[in-house]
Amino acid sequence: xxERTAGAxxxxxxxxxxxxxxxxxxxxxxxxxxxxxxxxxxxxxxPGEVFAADGILLSGHTWVEExxxxxxxxxxxxxxxxxxxxxxxxxxxxxxxxxSALGESTRYASIVKLMQTASLHKPRxxxxxxxxxxxxxxxxxxxxxLAAVWAWGDxxxxxxxVAVSVLIVTCPCxxxxxxxxxxxxxxxxxxxxxxxxxxxxxLESLSHVNAVVFDKTGTLTSDRMELQHLFTPAHxxxxxxxxxxxxxxxxxxxxxxxxxxxxPFARAVLHIDNRLPAKLIVQNVQEHVGQGVSATWMDGxxxxxxxxxxxxxxxxxxxxxxxxTAANMAQVHLFDxxxxxxxxxxxxxxxxxxxxxxxxxxxxxxxIYLMSGDKSAAVNAVxxxxxxxxxxxxxxxxxxxxxxxxxxxxxxxxxxxxxGDGFNDMPVMAxxxxxxxFGQAVPLAQARSDVVVxxxxxxxxxxxxxxxxxxxxxxxxxxxWAALYNALCVPLxxxxxxxxxxxxxxxxxxxxxxxxxxxxxxxxxPKQVLAS
Length: 532
What we know:
Largest sheet: 7 strands, mixed
Distance between the termini: 34 Å
Number of strands: 23
Oligomer: single chain
Structural class: alpha+beta
Strand content: 15-25%
CATH class of the largest domain: Alpha Beta
């Protein structure tokens, strides 16, 4: 636990900048160490840099990425007077801020404190074999002594041989191998699937899981949007295929404006346009932060004033009209001076195996929960597509909210696994019975998690639960075999009917049986694991 906490803190320190741009009395900026900054100082943050402290924006309009802190999937607009958080990324413009909190006083540090507090309550797993082997050894020694005393009346030599036979036949090799052989075989199987266990004892906890909590952004969904419907005056019901030159022209025209914006929906439009051959050029481009983009386009000899963005922004200066909408989808609109031209309806892209993973877990009797810091509309849209129980969906969650919900689940008897990838998931990952992080997750999430999944295969979560349960069944079978073997052979050795050489052979064979039975966990591919 100390090593994990130290690794998490090291990841935190490496994320925050070591140096910042602090304003001097004459208004210029010097680069100084973060340790020299104090509350009230004015800092300059350039595009691509990380905010080193909590504070208030003084100048500049920008967009910030807070996904690791709040779970918000989209960049957020920040204007003068808005609060900014340590650990968030400045995406757009150079801005200045006044520092209000540093170090342990920041929200960034408070999440780490929550993680450490939750870690104290993480259950300690003990090996099942260890709990049995110690009293078993004491019992064996007592039985051997009693056997020697019982046979002493015949002859001292027989007493020694009987005692030796009892000790050999009851050697706890099979008992000691019952648990580690199964767990190591299962761990090797998972490793070949790209699933790495920080501790093989995590399999025991994972085998008891009956609830899995997923984060949304970056876990159930990918990092991009996809076009679902394109609405035009000629297609009021919406169309999803861009199979005519007129529709492709509208997309290219919208993309000509979108390439001047950092907004995720603008990038989604550009993703569509990348598949089209025609590229259009617009002039007098101006981005209106938080609203959209305006530009001029020469359509032959006709000059057209274009606007792309929110409905309020695009309708400014034109006659307001009711447009077609798509439920639970974000929309980007295109207008010219004459009115509405097109609307694009986007939704988040689910991971390809998200539905398959949810169904596989349900077949295993696992309850599915969704906790996200994103807005309710975005979270509910994903939940509906995956047919999740609305009572199991939690939106707009802060890190302490997630931890509180987790404790409520555990208090109701749930054994919870958490699947997340963001910094804001750390407290709940630390408090869960077992936690998963993916290879593309932030280093802190990987440092805190019990299981790291390399690559993007969400199905590895369901495979891991299935294999963990089978591993514990194999462990129980191994322990049962070891117990039955001893129950049969110890009386025979006690009464002198089992010579030492045969006792040694039986002991060796019992160990081989345990190891061979455990090897089934190493050879079953994922599909067979789930089918079993």
